[in-house]
Amino acid sequence: MKKKRIFPKPADRSAVLIKRRNIKMAKSAHTYMRGATDNFYEWLQTASTGKVPEGPPVWICGDCHMGNLGPVANKEGKVEFQLRDFDQTVIGNPAHDLIRLGLSLAFAARGSNLPGILTAHMLKALMEGYSTHLIDGEEELKMPAIIRTSLTKARKRTWKELARERLADTSPTIPHGRKYWPVTQEEKRDILAIFTKETAVNLVNRIYSRTREDQIAVLDSAVWIKGCSSLGLMRYAVLLDIDDKETPNREVCLMDIKEAVTAKAPRYAHAKMPAINAKRIIEGARHLSPYLGERMVAGRVLGKSVFVRELRPQDTRLEIDTFSPKDALKVAKYFGAIVGRAHGRQMDTTTRQQWHKEATRYRLNDGVQIQSWLWRCTVELAALHEAAYLEHCRRHVEGEDR
What we know:
This protein is of the alpha+beta class and 402 residues long.
């Protein structure tokens, strides 16, 4: 007889998930960097005046690492490469996104055993892509083969592939196990309430070109164990039945509900943003990644602010385990272009030109032409995170030995 699995009580979930997050972060320096956002924001808050250039107030990702860029579909099914995570989005300094992305690229290069000189060239390529597409968002993007392959695969993905990847099979249920835990009656009540509100109903209707008379039903819901830095926050997977009255076959979609917490990313003090965290996240997404922003709404679960987004088969994470030197430079430039477009579309012509001049002003003259502020910030942060990662691993080992 199969032993019945016991899942953590709601009050114990956070401790279990934080422990799981710490184990995950010990796997590699790059994974640690992605999860240790507090280290990054603390450094930004204490960075001396003049170390980071002052950019115009625009919506920034706030946590712009490599894993937060990837294929994203709009409600019509068109797929583009965009930013894809906005928990930390604020109106802030665009330089912060460049520093975070530069740090991520540096750790990816480290994990690929690439020499330090190539890291310097990657940061140069990052700034080239950023500055070009900041000024001219319509400039043609030269897509590296490794990105093109990812985008081609994303465009061909089907609901069945998404269901097998996320849910194990295509049945209209969410299997409980390591990735999914049962919800409480209170959680189930609030999740049902979200999908009876007009905003959520209108979202699903817009995405699937349906009318208000068509039926929407919650088939199943579960606590979703997903992510790294967000482990410990409330997160739910929800299966919706979106059958048209005249459609005999069941049509299902997967919704992601995630707790929206106060951003730790530094923001400009006088910038006006929505006071409700979920609405702040949605507003940032609409500015930075329109394909994703149009597929999100705000809600509440257990009295906490949450944002709801539909997950499409085409929404995939770009998985790059190792770089070749040639790919590293092309990917860095392409990522810079994506971020440059996202920032630039929020600025008028004069502001773009002024920020371009400020961001590209300082250069080193020792062989590699690179913005000195980005290089120095990346080197300082890489050293900080490397030491913190080793200390994190030591604590993890000591915890295992107890």
